[in-house]
Amino acid sequence: MDSDIRPGSFQVLPVVIKNLLIINGLVWLAQITIGQDLISVEDLFALHHFSSQYYHPWQYITYMFLHSSESFFHILFNMFALWMFGSTLENLWGPGRFLIFYLVCGLGAGITQVLALTYDITQYAAMFDAGKMSAEEFFIMSNVPTLGASGAVMGIFAAFAYTFPNSQMIILPIPFPIKAKWALLGLAVLDLLGGISSSSTGIAHFAHLGGAAVGIVIVMIWNRNNRRHFY
Predict the structure, then answer these.
(1) How far apart, in whole angstroms, are the C-alpha atoms of residue 191 and residue 133?
(2) Which distant-in-sequence residues (6+ apart) come within 8 Å of 61 by Cβ?
């Protein structure tokens, strides 16, 4: 895969990034405008476990275009990270390859999250059978939706870190520059610890890990004739 960006050809806001920002922004505005008055957007388009009455196959794609309607920072952070790391990759790969990469990472993140939910729901069922969880609690916990572009964005960041491992970056609250490869490793460790902990933070940690893993695998395949050393 060609890893050079021709001088003068770099676009600050390339076409796919621009359209993803617009689509995500419009969907978020629709979410906060419609709310729950007409239809439940999250019931239809956020990702649910396949055992849920709200599950639909298309949710593996649509969930990554939804964000929390209760927090502007959810979509703001995801879109900023998408632009920051995705712009370089789209300029490097071209719009077609970048779009495919983004969607496949999001799909992989969704599948990983559903697999993790399968384990969680099994645990909830055991608690319900043991009388440690009410029917209402079991229903709510088994139907918690997953939404957001963070899994796909994590795949983008993983690809960036693989392609430019020694790029220096500032990640708050760390008071000094850190290389992209170490930032990726640190985020992966935090997501793994968050995913296996029993506390519920509302963060789809395994979706992040799945997106990153898919992103790394794809980039390694694309670079199989031009191996990069991640050190």
Answers:
(1) 27
(2) 103, 106, 107
For residue 194, pLDDT over 80 is answered with yes
Contact 191, 209 (CB under 8 A): yes
pLDDT at 176 over 60: yes
Residues ≥6 apart with Cβ < 8 Å to 51:
121, 142
For 91-117, the pLDDT digits (tens) are 999 999 999 999 999 999 999 999 999
Phi-psi group of 148: left, alpha or beta (phi > 0 → left; psi -120 to 50 → alpha; rest → beta): left
The letter for the amino acid at 227 is R
The CATH number covering residue 77 comes to: 1.20.1540.10
Are 160 and 84 within 8 A, CB to CB?
A: no
* Burial class of residue 215, CB neighbours in 10 A (0-12, 13-18, 19+): buried
Task: Evaluate whether residue 3 is within a structural domain.
Answer: no
How many domains would you assign to the chain?
A: 1
Which two tokens mark 212?
Answer: 């990153």
Question: Is it true that the peptide bond before 57 is cis, omega within 30 degrees of 0?
Answer: no
Residues written for the chain: 231
Residue with tokens 């893993």: 213
The token pair at 38 is: 């007409």
Domain assignment present for 129: yes
Domain range spanning residue 99?
Answer: 15-222
